[in-house]
Amino acid sequence: MVNSAQKHPIQLLQEIEQQCKNTAKGLPQRVDVKESWSGIGFRIGEINLVAPLKQVNEILHVPRLTAVPGTQRWVKGVANIRGTLLPIIDLQGFLHDKPLTHTIKTRVLVVQRDELAVGLVVSEVLGLRHFQEHERVTSVSKFDEALRNYVHGAFRQGDDEILVFSMYALAENPHFFQVAV
To answer: Phi/psi at 55 (nearest 5 deg)?
Structure first.
């Protein structure tokens, strides 16, 4: 056997390449791609919801608010977000006429639909959620009537039922724009 110090560098590289080919594992011949649906998980009180990913522009900590006199109780005020005034709405207050109790987990989901931009205060953001098509369900065991106009489907993962909440349906509701008292 010839000492590797005496081999030509090209020959040495060819031998290394051959060794790599001999020990390499083959690529899979077939890859099954499973379709999934993704959204932003959040809670209002004890209700687990998920909004379609494309309907939530941003997630914020609750910003400093300026109250707006003469508005519904669920209008928390306006916030200056990078130079833009953003109305902040208590989603639980709007849906259930019961204000949300703020905790360290309370967040604001920023939704923009056409010309409308609004921040929705929620109990907690649960992060990015992924669902497989087989987890989609057509009925749920318990349903909050206040959500009826905004729920466009549901998923079940284990014992959890997660309702798909349409931010766009909320933004199209005429009652949502009746903020004056």
So the answer is: -95, -5
CA neighbor of 95 nearest in space, from 14, 35, 149: 149
Where are the extended beta strands (E) located within 3-159? 36-44, 47-52, 58-61, 75-81, 84-90, 107-113, 116-122, 124-132, 136-137, 151-157
pLDDT value of position 159: 87
Q: What strand order describes the sheet that includes 84-90?
A: 58-61, 107-113, 116-122, 84-90, 75-81
**pTM as predicted:** 0.80
Q: Contact at 8 Å (CB) between 38 and 55?
A: no
What is the DSSP pairing of strand 47-52 with strand 84-90? unpaired
Tokens of 149: 């106009």
53 alpha carbon, distance to own chain's centre: 5
Q: What span, in angstroms and rounded, lies between the C-alpha atoms of 121 and 93?
A: 9
Angle made by CA atoms 60, 61, 66, in degrees to the nearest 5: 95
Q: What is the DSSP letter of 13?
A: H
| pLDDT tens, residue by residue, 34-80 | 789 999 999 999 899 999 999 999 999 999 999 999 999 999 999 99
**Tens digit of each residue's pLDDT (9 = 90 or more) over 120-169:** 999 999 999 999 999 999 888 878 899 999 999 999 998 889 999 999 99
Beta-ladder partners of 156? 161
Measured in whole angstroms, how far is the alpha carbon of residue 172 from the centre of its chain?
20
